[in-house]
Amino acid sequence: MLSLVGFLLFLKVGVAYLLALENANELTVSPTENIEYDRLIENGYLGLRNGILDQSAILLSSFGCLTYMNCKSMDHKLVRAPEFKKPFRILLAVSGLRQALTTNPGYNLRVAEYQEAAKVLLTYVQIY
Where is the signal peptide (predicted)? Predict the structure, then answer.
Protein backbone atom coordinates (compact mmCIF):
# COMPACT_ATOMS: atom_id res chain seq x y z
CA MET A 1 0.00 0.00 0.00
CA LEU A 2 1.16 3.48 -0.85
CA SER A 3 1.04 5.91 2.08
CA LEU A 4 0.15 9.58 1.65
CA VAL A 5 3.86 10.41 1.90
CA GLY A 6 4.60 7.76 -0.72
CA PHE A 7 1.88 9.18 -2.94
CA LEU A 8 3.32 12.68 -2.67
CA LEU A 9 6.80 11.36 -3.44
CA PHE A 10 5.39 9.46 -6.42
CA LEU A 11 4.13 12.73 -7.88
CA LYS A 12 7.64 14.19 -7.71
CA VAL A 13 9.52 11.23 -9.21
CA GLY A 14 8.86 12.10 -12.86
CA VAL A 15 10.01 15.67 -12.36
CA ALA A 16 13.06 14.50 -10.39
CA TYR A 17 14.06 12.08 -13.17
CA LEU A 18 13.68 14.77 -15.81
CA LEU A 19 15.78 17.26 -13.84
CA ALA A 20 18.45 14.62 -13.14
CA LEU A 21 18.68 13.61 -16.82
CA GLU A 22 18.91 17.24 -17.87
CA ASN A 23 21.63 17.91 -15.32
CA ALA A 24 23.62 14.80 -16.27
CA ASN A 25 23.44 15.73 -19.96
CA GLU A 26 23.99 19.46 -19.42
CA LEU A 27 20.63 20.33 -21.00
CA THR A 28 18.66 23.50 -20.33
CA VAL A 29 14.92 22.89 -20.37
CA SER A 30 12.32 25.43 -19.27
CA PRO A 31 9.90 24.66 -16.44
CA THR A 32 6.96 24.75 -18.85
CA GLU A 33 8.66 22.21 -21.14
CA ASN A 34 9.31 19.95 -18.14
CA ILE A 35 5.67 20.26 -17.10
CA GLU A 36 4.64 19.01 -20.52
CA TYR A 37 7.23 16.19 -20.51
CA ASP A 38 6.03 15.00 -17.11
CA ARG A 39 2.41 15.17 -18.27
CA LEU A 40 3.34 12.98 -21.24
CA ILE A 41 4.97 10.46 -18.88
CA GLU A 42 1.94 10.35 -16.57
CA ASN A 43 -0.78 10.45 -19.24
CA GLY A 44 0.91 8.55 -22.07
CA TYR A 45 3.21 6.06 -20.38
CA LEU A 46 1.46 5.50 -17.04
CA GLY A 47 -2.07 5.96 -18.40
CA LEU A 48 -3.16 8.37 -15.66
CA ARG A 49 -5.85 10.96 -16.40
CA ASN A 50 -4.32 13.71 -14.33
CA GLY A 51 -3.43 17.24 -15.36
CA ILE A 52 -0.46 19.51 -14.89
CA LEU A 53 -1.11 21.12 -11.53
CA ASP A 54 1.26 18.93 -9.48
CA GLN A 55 4.17 19.40 -11.86
CA SER A 56 3.43 23.11 -12.09
CA ALA A 57 3.40 23.51 -8.33
CA ILE A 58 6.79 21.82 -8.12
CA LEU A 59 8.45 23.65 -11.02
CA LEU A 60 6.87 27.12 -10.93
CA SER A 61 6.34 27.85 -7.22
CA SER A 62 8.53 29.96 -4.99
CA PHE A 63 8.82 30.12 -1.20
CA GLY A 64 6.53 32.72 0.37
CA CYS A 65 4.29 33.03 -2.68
CA LEU A 66 1.09 31.57 -4.02
CA THR A 67 1.31 30.36 -7.58
CA TYR A 68 -1.60 31.65 -9.63
CA MET A 69 -2.03 29.45 -12.69
CA ASN A 70 -4.45 28.90 -15.51
CA CYS A 71 -3.93 25.20 -16.29
CA LYS A 72 -5.52 25.52 -19.75
CA SER A 73 -3.36 28.38 -21.02
CA MET A 74 -0.34 27.66 -18.75
CA ASP A 75 -0.28 31.38 -17.86
CA HIS A 76 1.08 31.78 -14.35
CA LYS A 77 2.39 34.33 -11.90
CA LEU A 78 3.71 34.35 -8.36
CA VAL A 79 1.63 36.34 -5.88
CA ARG A 80 3.26 37.69 -2.73
CA ALA A 81 1.22 38.38 0.41
CA PRO A 82 0.85 42.19 -0.04
CA GLU A 83 -0.89 41.61 -3.40
CA PHE A 84 -3.82 39.71 -1.83
CA LYS A 85 -6.85 41.94 -2.19
CA LYS A 86 -9.38 39.53 -0.69
CA PRO A 87 -9.15 36.83 1.96
CA PHE A 88 -8.88 33.36 0.48
CA ARG A 89 -9.52 29.77 1.41
CA ILE A 90 -7.70 26.66 0.27
CA LEU A 91 -9.44 23.35 -0.32
CA LEU A 92 -7.31 20.22 -0.08
CA ALA A 93 -9.05 17.02 -1.16
CA VAL A 94 -7.42 13.71 -0.27
CA SER A 95 -9.11 10.46 -1.29
CA GLY A 96 -7.49 8.48 1.54
CA LEU A 97 -6.83 5.53 -0.78
CA ARG A 98 -3.40 3.99 -0.44
CA GLN A 99 -2.72 2.14 -3.66
CA ALA A 100 -0.31 2.76 -6.51
CA LEU A 101 -2.04 4.92 -9.10
CA THR A 102 -0.91 2.74 -11.99
CA THR A 103 -2.28 -0.49 -10.51
CA ASN A 104 -5.54 0.95 -9.22
CA PRO A 105 -8.14 1.22 -12.00
CA GLY A 106 -10.28 3.36 -9.70
CA TYR A 107 -7.91 6.33 -9.98
CA ASN A 108 -9.11 7.45 -13.41
CA LEU A 109 -12.70 6.90 -12.25
CA ARG A 110 -12.06 9.23 -9.30
CA VAL A 111 -10.68 11.83 -11.71
CA ALA A 112 -14.02 11.73 -13.53
CA GLU A 113 -15.88 11.92 -10.21
CA TYR A 114 -13.84 14.98 -9.13
CA GLN A 115 -14.60 16.63 -12.47
CA GLU A 116 -18.33 16.02 -11.95
CA ALA A 117 -18.12 17.34 -8.37
CA ALA A 118 -16.38 20.49 -9.63
CA LYS A 119 -19.23 21.07 -12.12
CA VAL A 120 -21.78 20.73 -9.30
CA LEU A 121 -19.83 23.15 -7.08
CA LEU A 122 -19.54 25.68 -9.90
CA THR A 123 -23.29 25.47 -10.49
CA TYR A 124 -23.89 26.00 -6.76
CA VAL A 125 -21.58 29.04 -6.68
CA GLN A 126 -23.37 30.61 -9.66
CA ILE A 127 -26.74 30.20 -7.91
CA TYR A 128 -25.61 32.20 -4.86
Answer: 1-16
* pTM score: 0.62
Domain limits for position 76? 4-127
Q: What amino acid positions are annotated as catalytic residues?
A: 54
Please report, in tens digits, the pLDDT of each residue of the chain (128 residues total).
444 445 445 557 889 989 999 999 999 999 999 999 999 988 888 788 788 888 898 899 988 788 888 888 889 999 887 767 777 777 777 666 666 666 666 777 878 888 899 899 888 887 65
CB 76 within 8 A of CB 68: yes
Please state the domain count of the chain: 1
Q: Is 51 exposed, middle or buried (0-12, 13-18, 19+ CB in 10 A)?
A: middle
